[in-house]
Amino acid sequence: MNTFTQLESAVRSYGRSYPVVFDRAADSCLFDVDGRRYLDFLAGAGALNYGHNNSAITEALLDYIKRGGIAHGLDMQTQAKEEFLNALEQFILAPRDLRYRVQFTGPTGTNAVEAAFKIARKVTGRQNILAFTNGFHGVTLGALSATGNRHHRGGAGTALNAITRMPYDGYLGNTIDTSDLLIKMIEDPSSGIDLPAAVIVETVQGEGGLNVASTQWLQKIEQFCRQTGALLIIDDIQAGCGRTGEFFSFESMGIEPDIITLSKSLSGYGLPMAIVLISPQHDCWKPGEHNGTFRGNNHAFVTAAAALQKYWHNDDFAQEIRRKESLLTNRLDQLVTLFPHHITGQKGRGMMRGLAFRDGQMATDTSRRSFANGLVIETSGSHGEVVKCLCPLTISDEELNEGLDILASSISDVAISYAA
Ligand SMILES: Cc1ncc(COP(=O)(O)O)c(C=O)c1O
Q: Which whole-number Å values give the CA distances from 77 to 88, 105, 203, 240, in the listed order?
């Protein structure tokens, strides 16, 4: 029995997978209380794209705290919020010719999803929302309705309503275009599916196993939305903020969502923050209609603005992500070739990639073994069969290679133990 097993709720999960007490962190590394170093390929489940305690961002935050900048501001007008809004406009929205209003929600991804659903339902007067197999959108009741995972859904204790589940791109194999099925079922007035208020989709399913939607499929989903009056919600909470090699994961796809949800790495520092980007014509909120005490985490606004300023003022960072992506892809390909009996292939896009194991248990064992060898790495997918590399985007080539070396030797250890 330790403090955590004795005093913390049974709901704790990552603490079970990594049973040490962490103390410090720097860039791509975590350190436990005994000073042992771990490379971090989990990166706050995607909340630490710029690494732990990124020095430029730390400096901005310390300066702000030292000058007595407001920490908590409800949704009042503050200088920190103003600077964040201007940075988002200057470095992200304007250069991409995107026009959105920014809603600050409670500071979690799931609350941003709740807000997105409410807007879509208000705008259209419809209730039904189309969500996809293996989608993950959070665990508060509205968002949980759209989440596929049975384990999480089981925690609801009540009916999860007003969602229709459709097969994601590739769910029925390569030869069936699931967007055709979706379109057919909605066009048929007797299919039993109500016209949707919105379609919510991740371009890469982070928790669902790194499934990737193709450009063509997403374009058909967008076209379907335009034809039926449904709003297109892109949940970019995990795939956004540079993870796929561009700020928004859909940038190069020629689609324009009505609503975008962002959180996780938006604050750039692991501080809680979430926003919903709303096409101006759909911004139908009444003042305070969706509120929350912690919509004004000004420390997060400061770090978010600093991250946008540092990494997104030009294309260098995006190019650097794409360069690292090819390093990661090549190394993962080598592992697929080395372990064909255990690994079926690599999955994902950008720096959101992983290895699909034939057996979920072996993926879990590989993750546990990696931890014993000094690498924090998690699994995802229906059966936890995908070992997911989600390292900070700022990781050095040396550390990226070091982490992948640990992964390779851990797979080898586990394969040998299975063969014995
Ligand atoms: C795509 C996506 N949407 C929503 C969420 C929920 O975010 P949060 O855990 O901050 O509520 C997550 C979390 O993993 C996610 O990956």
A: 16, 15, 33, 26
Measure the CA–CA gap between 25 and 243, rounded to whole angstroms: 21
Write down the pLDDT at residue 420: 85
Contact 383, 46 (CB under 8 A): no
- The finding on whether 136 has its CB within 6 A of some atom of ligand 1 is yes
Contacts 24+ apart (CB under 8 A), 249-257: 249/203, 249/204, 249/349, 249/350, 250/203, 250/218, 251/96, 252/215, 253/203, 253/215, 253/218, 253/219, 254/215, 254/219, 255/218, 255/219, 255/222, 256/98, 256/222, 257/222, 257/232, 257/233
Closest by CA position to 110, among listed 324, 276, 241, 257: 276
Token representation of residue 381: 């997918």
Q: Which residues pair with 104 in a beta bridge?
A: 275
Does the Cβ of 147 fall within 6 Å of ligand 1? no
DSSP-assigned letter for residue 31: E
Cα–Cα dist 410/407, whole Å: 5
Q: Is the CB of 365 under 6 A from ligand 1?
A: no
Ligand 1 centre to CA of 140 (Å) is 10
Q: How far is the CA of 237 from the centre of ligand 1 (A)?
A: 6
105 lines ligand 1 (CB under 6 A): no
**What are the residue ranges in the chain where pLDDT is below 50?**
none
Output the six-digit token pair for 213: 């939607």
137 lines ligand 1 (CB under 6 A): yes
- Is domain 3-55+315-419 in CATH 3.90.1150.10, yes or no? yes
Tokens of residue 191, six digits: 């299919």
- 350 Cα to the center of ligand 1, angstroms: 19
Query: Is residue 250 in contact with ligand 1, taking CB distance under 6 Å?
Result: no
Residue 364 Cβ < 6 Å to ligand 1: no
Ligand 1 pocket test: pick from 233, 238, 248, 386 the residue with the most ligand atoms within 8 Å of its Cβ: 238
- Report the CATH fold assignment for 58-311: Aspartate Aminotransferase; domain 2 (3.40.640)
**Which pLDDT belongs to residue 1?**
72
| Secondary-structure breakdown of the chain: helix, strand, coil percentages, each rounded to the nearest 5 | 40, 15, 40
Angle, helices 360-372/397-419, rounded to nearest 10 degrees: 120
